Amino acid sequence: MANLERAPRQILITGGAGFIGANFVHHWCTAYPGDRVVVLDALTYAGNRNNLAGLEGANLRFVEGDICDRALVDSLLQAESIDTLAHFAAESHVDRSILGPGAFVQTNVVGTFTLLEAFRQHWNNAGQPAASRFHHVSTDEVYGSLEADDPGFSETTPYAPNSPYSASKAGSDHLVRAYYHTYGMPTLLTNCSNNYGPYHFPEKLIPLSCINILMGKPLPIYGDGQNIRDWLYVGDHCSALDAVIHRGTPGETYNIGGNNEVKNIDLVQMLCELMNELAPELPVRPAQNLITYVKDRAGHDRRYAIDATKISTELGWTPAETVEGGLRRTVEWYLTHRDWWQPLLSEEYQAYYREVYA
Ligand code: NAD
Ligand code: DAU
Questions:
Q1: Nearest Cα to 302, choosing from 101, 162, 205, 123?
Q2: Which residues are catalytic?
């Protein structure tokens, strides 16, 4: 929902070459072509400059760099007169956080702290403009795991992170909260459920399953496959973030979810059905024959679900996509974008894959 009366913004988007960040950059450049957009991204294994193909130009500047580099962040905030910071950059994969938590603490905690400090100084130097916003993009995993009959996570659910990834995101959320309460900095915090859609790196369940089906490789299901996630099409996450940046109240938290709870095994079955229908040539047909139960993820959270009442009633946001429609669009995207995902299956990716699934 774009506000036609709005003043142009100078927005710094961290992690804009990753999955959600890139979708958000596309969303923002389409919705607000008069805005100045600066993307700061370290191009880790998960970052891909091709995700921004066609966008870089007069109004979009891409800067390769680390959010922990204070001097770089200071210089960008000042040189570009940034008034809005949308912070996506993170180490984002739970399985990688189990293998090596250090990078998660560094980027997610120290990196967020570096951005908060730099933005605070910049905001003070500029005379604390009323329109400034620091938006921290976070996850529902900070709330821990739900039992089968529990209500969905609300904004007042106590934090109980269970993985190094979610603990590092929880730490960053607490810092963001403290910068509002202590310094009055105009922060916004959103906690969102599982996203899926274009540009999703193939370590996560949905893109991994799509690609493995196309390659005739096993579809690994952790544990008994009964774990539940609340799936949200990435375009709906972007429209929610847009609503919060423009109309959210500083200092507030908004939970974002799709109201689409699905068991992992049912989700993979749906992907198999779509591939059976849409892919003309599959190495293994029906694709369901590839389903393989494997050792469970350590500390695997059983169920996530979001209560999105607050963002719906206060900001008028609701998701536009159903899980059936969103999965169909996603499968079609992976079918028509082999040139995007094939180069990602690098030796580094294969080594990671062997380590997790051996
Ligand atoms: P991603 O892993 O696909 O992308 C992360 C991006 O951050 C990459 O482009 C990477 O290069 C960049 N990056 C990593 N470390 C950096 C550093 N030190 N400095 C600069 N850039 C760095 O992640 P995603 O799935 O797009 O998630 C984006 C954000 O949304 C994360 O904060 C994540 O916690 C949150 N989130 C994700 C989901 C989901 O389902 N994927 C759901 C809710 C919230
Ligand atoms: O809830 C939001 C979170 O969703 C985000 O904060 C994370 O950044 C994002 O990665 C995602 O976390 P999950 O761990 O839920 O996503 P993932 O795709 O890794 O796994 C989804 C479910 O599928 C989970 O229950 C684990 C299971 N799974 C995953 C993989 C990769 C499998 O059964 N097999 C697999 O091979």
A1: 162
A2: 140-141, 165
